[in-house]
Amino acid sequence: MSDNNGFEDEAELDAFREQYEEHREALFELVSDYADAQQIDDGLFAALLLDIAVSSRMLGYAYSVEKPSVAGLRLELDRFAKDAAEHVRDVKAGAEEFIAEVKSNRDAN
After folding, report:
1. CB of 58 within 8 A of CB of 73?
2. What are the tens digits of pLDDT across the range 5-63?
3. DSSP annotation string for 70-99
4. How far apart are CA 109 and CA 23, in angstroms?
5. Which of 12, 71, 83, 89 could be stapled to 7 by a disulfide with Cβ–Cβ 3.0 to 4.6 Å?
6. What is the dihedral of CA 96, 5, 79, 32, to 10 degrees?
7. Is residue 28 within 8 Å of 47, Cβ to Cβ?
8. Which pTM was predicted?
């Protein structure tokens, strides 16, 4: 059995990945433009985005279940923390390539 994260086939998974990246780029551009216009510090910018992500996950839970509960919300936040930690681990694995790309872009400018 293949591990396609619940997708029917590789083509469906690829379509999802493409759509995900399009949304990610568009949202990043929107919030980055706002942060630039408001001259928001990079650290504060990251904290604000994290706060929005947590709030979004909390609201998503509260509105997606018939009887939201404190225990259910806490479990959902535990799942979110696990997902976030996994994402950070995945990104750390590509740290060398990321820094090389940033250095290349900085040198080009």
Report:
1. yes
2. 678 889 999 999 999 999 999 999 999 999 999 999 999 999 999 999 999 999 999 99
3. HHHHHHHHHHHHHHHHHHHHHHHHTHHHHH
4. 27
5. 12
6. 50
7. no
8. 0.80
